[in-house]
Amino acid sequence: MTPQHLPAARAVALTKIFGAGDASVTALDAVDVDFATGAFTAIMGPSGSGKSTLLHCLAGLDDPTAGRVYLGDTDLTLLGDRGLTELRRDRMGFVFQSFNLLPVVTAAENMLLPMRLAGARPDSGWFDEVVTRLGLAGRLSHRPHELSGGQQQRVAVARALLPRPDVVFADEPTGNLDSQSGAEVLSLLRSSVREFGQTVVMVTHDPVAASYADRVVLLADGRPAGEIDDPTPDSVVRVMRELRAPAC
Ligand SMILES: Nc1ncnc2c1ncn2[C@@H]1O[C@H](COP(=O)(O)OP(=O)(O)OP(=O)(O)O)[C@@H](O)[C@H]1O
User: How far apart are CA 99 and CA 172, in angstroms?
Assistant: First the structure.
């Protein structure tokens, strides 16, 4: 577990350049940013501003070109492939836009899969609490195709929360959901922060989704472009509009 006084995740002078020479693209340009332990942070910015690249580097899914990435006090840039795989398995949870559930096994088996791969299992009290809180108690033996999109994403959230990871990384978690199912998933992510002390870092395009977070980190052209504390949909829309149309 990350000690409370350390940021759960941190980028230091993080630079990511894709390609080389004339065709190179600087997706992240010496980004410094901290993600507080026990907080829900949204990453926003115009299309192409580097949001996904930042999330992928924080999660060890992409190699930085320069700079450092920390999970608690672990420097990801010093780890090899095996170390990164174990770190992701043991200390990170993931929620993707496309749910990424295994179609051939039940909801319960999907939820428990990452822990099984690690040779672990949650205690039954914690499993029951997560399943009940996510409204999945009556759905445990269903296969993904027997569940609605919102239910499938709640299974993915349960799968991410059960190992009590240091950070849950969510990439457009409501992108494939109707607004009501999306609101449920966002409320659950927020509750996991408030009630379980979970740290959540979420990339989103949606000002309403971002308003569920405690803080919004803004990117523009691969650089930090400000922050919003206690965001509302209106405050996010206003700041995003300014980012897209900077004053001349
Ligand atoms: N694998 C890649 N190869 C080359 N360029 C890439 C690659 N991945 C991203 N880029 C470029 O890096 C920049 C940042 O991309 P990124 O996907 O991080 O932005 P984003 O803010 O998440 O965008 P969107 O909101 O459209 O998803 C863009 O210019 C993109 O074209």
Answer: 10
